[in-house]
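Before going further, learn to read the protein records used in this course. A complete example follows; check for yourself that the lines match position by position.
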Amino acid sequence: MPNAGTRSAGAHYTVTEITELIKGTLEDGFPWVTVQGEISNFRPSASGHWYFSLKDMNAVLSVVMFRGRLDGVRFNPEDGMLVTASGGVSVYPRRGSYQLICETLARAGQGDILALLEERKRALAAEGLFEASRKRPLPMFPSRIAVVTSPTGAAVRDILRVLRRRNAGMDVVVLPTPVQGEGADERIAHAIEVAARLKLGEVIIVGRGGGSLEDLLPFSSEIVVRAIAASPVPVISAVGHETDVTLSDLAADVRAPTPSAAAEMVAASSAELLAQVAGLVSMIEGSIHQRLERIRLLLAQFAPENLERNVRLFLQPCLQRLDDAREGIGLGFQGKLAEIRHRYQLAARELASYSPLEVLQRGYAVVSHEKTGKVLLSAQGVSSGDGLDIRLARGGMRATVEETHADEKL
């Protein structure tokens, strides 16, 4: 972006440069502002964005609100409506005009109402009135319902139309009450209490059609919220359109996006009931068939033609393990015998090496005294004329000593 401070007086700018300078100055200087004014020339585009102007007695401001921000708007903007718009100021370079990029849009005075409702919501939530554990399921087939709404509004007509279409035999008790304006909240709370105390219905529907934030205020009243929370009969809150959320919606056992949807919740159509019954019958039949098939397969195992096979299948691993054990024992004995035989041979060889007979095989002889039988290791103790027994490797002889010699090398 060009920097005006770096240019001398009288320097030239391109249109793009000066526009970018102005754009940056506005965006940095007004990143978030809230402007109150009257809507003029409101133009929703085909792409879903809103284009309009805010004006007062002396000026007009162009405003654009992009589609992604529209979900938070709780009313239908119209020309002449006094509103407050919040967002940042920017420049649209192609037109060279500045505009407000609107992030939030509310009717004038709604900011205080929203703050009040938010504070009330926090206080009631702290008491546990909105806890999910308090919610009760609706009865599946109620025979009578109580409807707390205006007797002349579209809500009651929608409810009755749906009930007639889906279940003509259901009884409906309408408790007529005003649904907006001063004192409406007290009348609504009283009707809920009467319907619950007198058990005028197995389900209570509390609702009305759509409207502005101010129109829906009675259904966010503390007295109505407490009446719904205290009701021993399940309560459906059906206030406004799907995007409208009141504190009654949070306290009720079930929230319906519209009164028609509430009627559909309590009155199942004959077609739906038949479909549910058919589904249950099919599920039960399938379960029975599965059980019978398992029983048949179990009994088939005890048929005569299968008993021998089953016994054989049972015994085969045992017999195979017995054969393996027998073979292992035999191989173990053979190995042990081979080891013992080898050790015997080694011992025999070692023992033979100590035998004098082995020495005789190498040409030596064993000489013993004839009288004493003592093996002679030296000439001492032998006299001339003594008899000697001489043992050779094969055979032996007897000799008489003629002469002895002292130890000396021959």
User: Anything to note?
Assistant: Residues 304-354 form the longest helix (51 residues). The mean pLDDT is 84. The radius of gyration is 57 Å. The first strand starts at residue 33 and ends at 44.
